[in-house]
């Protein structure tokens, strides 16, 4: 092989690393037609929303606003204001703590998740049973979801992981739309055959405007934004 061919092959091998360094990542949203979005919290640090808003692949964002009965995400106010300003459809989510007083959790969530600022239905993040018995845990979940539904006059979106759903939640949250996380190339499979609207397919996504990993999601099949649109009364 002559020197010219060796040089060309060397450059081609180095190209993917160069593109990665420049932020030109080849990811799911670059190769499909599904509607994509992200969810964030203070863990992402300062988000450059103007840059994120310019990314035509990202249509929506769920922003953490509260956890348990007292915790408030320190970056929520800034994030929701700037996400709106730069054109994303926005929803808010609460990290559920099943052992903590449900009324206090709802009040904490309501104080942050104000209807006038929402484009998308509220989301409840359920990923710990806090070492409760399965029955006590599920009772807590069902009661809290009903309280959120009554407060906002629409069913909240239930976010959880595939394995957690299959172990604890199947047949317990029927009637509530599902957002399922599974970080593999193949979509989640729920043991009870439930349909789900959104799949969070990676916790290590990259996006210009965010300097850390970010969770990325997409709608499944024919599901669309219309199904999770906040209904203002």
Explain this structure.
By secondary structure, the protein is α/β, with parallel strands linked by helices. It is built from seven helices and nine strands. The N and C termini lie far apart (72 Å).
Main sheet: strands, sense, barrel? 8 strands, mixed, barrel
The total count of strands amounts to 9
DSSP summary: helix tally: 7
- List the strand order in the largest sheet: 1-2-4-5-6-7-8-9
- Would you identify the regions where 5 or more consecutive residues have pLDDT less than 50? 3-26
Question: Could you list some keywords that capture this structure?
Answer:
233 residues, alpha/beta, 24% strand, disordered N terminus
Note the topology.
Blueprint: H1 3-22, H2 28-31, E1 36-40, H3 49-53, E2 58-67, E3 71-72, H4 76-85, E4 89-95, H5 102-112, E5 123-125, H6 134-152, E6 157-161, H7 162-169, E7 178-181, E8 198-207, E9 210-219
Parallel strand pairs: 1-2, 2-4, 4-5, 5-6, 6-7, 7-8
Antiparallel strand pairs: 1-9, 2-3, 8-9
Helix pairs in contact: 5-6
């Amino acid at each position: 092989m002559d020197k010219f061919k060796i040089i060309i092959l060397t450059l081609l091998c180095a190209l993917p690393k160069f593109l990665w360094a420049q932020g030109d990542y080849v990811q799911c949203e670059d190769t499909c037609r599904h509607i994509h979005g992200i969810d964030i919290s203070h863990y992402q640090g300062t988000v450059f929303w103007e840059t994120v808003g310019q990314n035509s692949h990202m249509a929506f964002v769920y922003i953490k606003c509260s956890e348990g009965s007292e915790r408030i995400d320190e970056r929520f106010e800034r994030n929701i204001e700037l996400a709106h300003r730069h054109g994303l459809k926005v929803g808010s989510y609460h990290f559920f703590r099943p052992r903590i007083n449900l009324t206090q959790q709802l009040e904490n969530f309501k104080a942050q998740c104000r209807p006038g600022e929402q484009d998308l239905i509220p989301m409840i993040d359920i990923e710990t049973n806090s070492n409760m018995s399965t029955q006590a845990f599920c009772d807590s979940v069902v009661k809290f979801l009903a309280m959120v539904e009554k407060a906002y006059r629409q069913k909240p979106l239930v976010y959880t992981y595939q394995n957690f759903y299959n172990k604890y939640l199947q047949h317990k949250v029927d009637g509530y739309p599902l957002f399922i996380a599974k970080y593999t190339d193949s979509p989640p499979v729920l043991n009870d055959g439930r349909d789900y609207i959104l799949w969070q397919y990676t916790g290590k996504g990259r996006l210009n405007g965010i300097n850390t990993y970010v969770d990325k999601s997409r709608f499944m099949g024919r599901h669309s934004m219309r199904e999770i649109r906040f209904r203002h009364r």
